[in-house]
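dude i think i finally got it to work??
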Amino acid sequence: MKNWKKMGISVMVALTMIAGLSACGSGKKESASKDGEVTLRFWWWGNDDRHQATLNMIKDFEKENPKTKIKAEYVGFGSLEEKVTTMLTGGESTTPDIIQLDRGQVARFSPNGDGFYDLSKIKEIDLSSYDPDFLKTGQFNGVQNGIPLGKNVVSVLFNKTAFEKVGAEIPKSWDELKEAAKKFPEGSFPLVLPTPRFGTGIYLQQMTGKTEFDEKGNMNYTKEEYKEALKWYMEMVEAGAFNTRQDYLENVGTEPVSLAQNPKFISGEYAGVLEWTGGIAGNEQALKEAKQELIVADMLKNDGAKGANSIAKPSFLLAVSKFEKNPEQAGKFINDFINGKKANETLGVTRGVPASKVAAQTLIDAGLVEGAIKEGYDYSQTVEALNETVFYEDATLQTILSDALENMQLKDLSLDDATDYVFTKTQEQVEKLKSTYKLN
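look at this
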């Protein structure tokens, strides 16, 4: 029996539906009243800043469109999958008119493009301010089921102050990162990876020029390529370039979370982080309060790389219920949300910098996109990034990789056994996901 089969690695339990939906004021869908007034339900999730900005935008919209009322329904970040599943499987009565979802959620409920309204058929929505290729991230089976609100790209964020303190140059390659690590004291790291799979994933993309999975969810990498990526990652850990798994477990925990409030990040002991550009604002603010400077660096790559390939995805998709009875009014609200000048000044960067070029320029002109946030936006527009399959961030796929690395570092699991485990378990999970997302 192979060693990895003895590892006792837990497998994620299947998602179960909850009985009730935790949202503000959910209820039956309403059509136009006798006097022509229409009420539309708009559901989203986020933090208090996002909630308040969205409520303010809705208030302004209703003043300009007195015949259209927007019923706000919003939740925090907890148990989102359960809430979304309950909401979208309940039929017309539980499905809001306008919904903020992530790409995987839209794909899961509309693999054939018939789970949500075809937004290209709503003439009130102007999508000319979007990059046509990126707009396709909201298309399923060729149907425009979602509008990407922002572009999220995996980026390298460095604490410039921490690098200057130890006399290290900002690296431009993975090899230079290993050299910089020599100047950091024990227990400090130039780069921390809350999601280790981003590291191996970007390295493999650079090595092969391909994404991990094709559009149908089939695996693009061989077992030998996975082995090379695991070997490289361990070399980076041994050189002190990446955080050790033990250090991360002791100081952060088991979840891939933002480091913005972590003491080691604020003190500069974690001098960099590999994460989505959507996380820049929180990280920059945390360091600014500690009188340190965050910068967005070019994606690291070694000589011979086939591209500085990062990973891109839409931050959110805005979708409309397939049951929608008032597409004209819904379209007017969505168009104001994605393109409106006053609306976007009100929404600010609470959902990141908008993907709509018109809205992004509105925020830039208003001085709402500056510092590291502006660097991140510019980076996301120019970096060579590949769009991964809809299930790339599946929790089980993340766990397979992190568990293998953890057992290599803490339990001396061999490279061969770790490779066998990652390749075999990834194959098994991918087959399940292809069925779930109907990609066969």
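The first helix runs from residue 48 to 64.
im so relieved honestly
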